[in-house]
């Protein structure tokens, strides 16, 4: 009956929405390409010297929306992205976005440095470029809220480290500029360098590392030290000349 008041029994069976607690996150439907003509365009804007370049990537809308809640909200909104079905990015690179598109469709990333015939020393410039692309991809994946892509990217970075025992040191400045202090990417590099670099390596590479990373390395080692270890002062006393002579006689 229209306008009827629910009984107390009905009220108990159907509590008010305020008391229902947090709702479960709605999971996007996996792409089935039933609407394969529905496409979205990504425009990557980069500053190269004094001029800007634009690189366009076209992706199936259902693929983009499935892999990113950020993109899903944008393309289904009344904002400019929703109206034009175009998304502009000015904080990444075309080389990183190319890898992202690879992953969107295959959940894999092609990394040249991991090929069997790759010799890093013969292609240092290309290695450095790929190192940057992977780090840029990790940061991009973080911004579009895709943890799976972040983890896949980090796995490739780690494979490069384990195979070649190096990664372009200059890229660490990018990491520290584009991540937060509690970033898992920062923590990965701090532990990798702390555990994998010989003392001589720190002397050689120290001036290339970001200042904040040096602090993080110091904190990491401080946490690893044995608590309560006594200091033997004699290790640090400066030899007195007379004692040195007597000791040598």
TrEMBL record:
SUPFAM superfamilies: POZ domain (SSF54695). This is BTB domain-containing protein. It comes from Lachnellula subtilissima. Pfam families: BTB. InterPro entries: BTB/POZ_dom (IPR000210), SKP1/BTB/POZ_sf (IPR011333). Residues 1-33 are annotated as: Disordered. PANTHER family: BTB DOMAIN-CONTAINING PROTEIN, BTB DOMAIN-CONTAINING PROTEIN-RELATED. Residues 38-113 form the BTB domain.
């Amino acid at each position: 009956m229209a306008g009827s008041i629910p009984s107390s029994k009905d009220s108990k069976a159907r509590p008010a929405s305020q008391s229902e607690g947090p709702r479960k996150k709605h999971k996007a439907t996996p792409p089935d390409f039933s609407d394969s003509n529905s496409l979205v365009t990504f425009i990557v804007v980069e500053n190269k010297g004094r001029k800007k370049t634009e690189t366009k990537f076209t992706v199936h809308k259902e693929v983009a929306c499935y892999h990113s809640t950020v993109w899903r909200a944008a393309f289904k909104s009344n904002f400019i992205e929703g109206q034009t079905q175009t998304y502009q990015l000015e904080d990444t690179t075309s080389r990183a976005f190319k890898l992202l598109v690879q992953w969107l469709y295959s959940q894999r990333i092609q990394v040249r440095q991991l090929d069997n015939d790759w010799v890093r020393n013969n292609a240092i410039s290309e290695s450095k470029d790929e190192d940057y692309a992977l780090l840029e991809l990790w940061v991009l994946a973080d911004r579009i809220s895709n943890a799976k892509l972040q983890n896949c990217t980090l796995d490739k970075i780690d494979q490069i480290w384990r195979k070649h025992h190096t990664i372009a040191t200059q890229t660490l400045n990018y990491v520290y500029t584009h991540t937060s202090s509690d970033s898992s990417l920062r923590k990965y590099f701090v532990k990798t360098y702390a555990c994998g670099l010989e003392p001589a390596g720190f002397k050689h590479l120290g001036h290339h590392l970001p200042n904040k990373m040096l602090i993080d390395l110091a904190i990491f080692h401080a946490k690893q030290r044995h608590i309560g270890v006594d200091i033997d002062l004699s290790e640090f006393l400066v030899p007195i000349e007379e004692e040195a002579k007597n000791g040598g006689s």
